Amino acid sequence: MTDHYGVPLVEMRDISISFGGIKAVDHVSIDLYPGEVVGLLGHNGAGKSTLIKILSGAYQMDTGEIRINGNKAEIHNPRDARSHNIETIYQTLALADNLDAASNLFLGREILGRFGLFNDAMMESETRKIMGRLNPNFQKFNVPVSALSGGQRQSVAIARAVYFNAKILIMDEPTAALGPHETQMVAELIEELKAQGIGIFLIEHDIHNVMKLCDRASVMKNGELVGTVNVGDVTDDDLLGMIILGKKPAHLS
Q1: Are 52 and 177 in a shared domain?
Q2: Same domain, 13 and 130
Q3: 81 and 3 part of one domain
Q4: How far apart, in Å, are the Cα atoms of 171 and each of 112, 124, 151, 190, 218?
Q5: Domain of 141, in residue numbers
Q6: CA 49 from chain center: how many Å?
Q7: Distance from CA of residue 182 to its chain's centroid?
C-alpha cells in the first residue's frame, strides 16, 4: 500500500467539461502519487475516459485546475501533456506494425548518426537496455511488432513512454484481450514502473484487475466522482456497489 507523503504527482481539482450542454465530467477531483496506481472505474459514459483525456491534452476542461508536482499546469494539447512527462498508452497501441521494436521506440524521434542517417545500432542497443529493465524476457528485437503477442506489444509501447521520461502514465485497459499469461506480464511491468516511482492512472472495466493492480480506485457515475477508496479496504462487491448504486460502502462513508 502506498503511503502518501509530500506532493502528489498529479492533482486534478474540480474538473468539469460539457458536450452539447451535458456535463460529461462534473466537478471531479482526483490525485496520483509517485509509485502509485489509481484505477478509474465506472460504466461506459461514466466520464472516466473524458476526465483522463483532459489530462492527456485530448480535451480541454471548461473549469478546474491541474497541478503537476504542486505547480499549476496548462495542458491544451497532447504536446503540452508530454512536456509535463505525461504519456498515454491506448488500447489500440499506436505502433507501426511493419517496424521492429527499436524502430517503434524511436518512431519520430530517431537517433541520427553521421550524414544524418538513422543510427540503427544505437537505437537497438538503447531498446535492449530499456527492455532489459522493464521486461527481461523480451527477446524479439528483430521482427516486426505485428509478429509480437499482445503483452509484448504492450511492453514496447510502455518502453517507449518510459524511455522518453514518462513520470505519469495513463493506461487504457492494458490487459483487455490478453490471456492470463500475458496479463501477468503486464502486471509485472506495472510493478516495475511503480518501483521506478512512475504514477499510473489505469482506466479499467474489470474490477478484478483493479483489485490486483491498483493501490486506490476512483469510481465515477454519470460524470460525478462517487468516491476514491484504498483497494485494501474494500471487496469486489464494494466496488461493484459504488459503480451501480453510485455511493460509497457504508463502512467507508
Answers
A1: yes
A2: no
A3: yes
A4: 30, 25, 13, 10, 15
A5: 98-165
A6: 11
A7: 17
Residue segments in the chain with a per-residue pLDDT below the cut of 70: 1-5, 91-93, 253
Residues 65 and 186 occupy one common structural domain: yes
Q: Please list, residue by residue across 191-229, b when 16 or more beta carbons sit within 10 angstroms of its beta carbon and e when fewer do.
A: ebbbeeebbbbbbbeebebbbebbbbbbbbbebbbbbbb
Do residues 134 and 57 share a domain?
A: no
Predicted TM-score (pTM) of the model is 0.90
Q: What is the DSSP string of the chain?
A: -----S--SEEEEEEEEEETTEEEEEEEEEEE-TT-EEEEE--TTSSHHHHHHHHTTSS--SEEEEEETTEEE---SHHHHHHTTEEEE-TT----TTS-HHHHHTTTSPPB-GGG-B-HHHHHHHHHHHHHHH-TT----SS-GGGS-HHHHHHHHHHHHHHTT-SEEEEESTTTT--HHHHHHHHHHHHHHHHTT-EEEEE-S-HHHHHHH-SEEEEEETTEEEEEEEGGG--HHHHHHHHHH-S--GGG-
- As for how many domains the chain has, the answer is 2
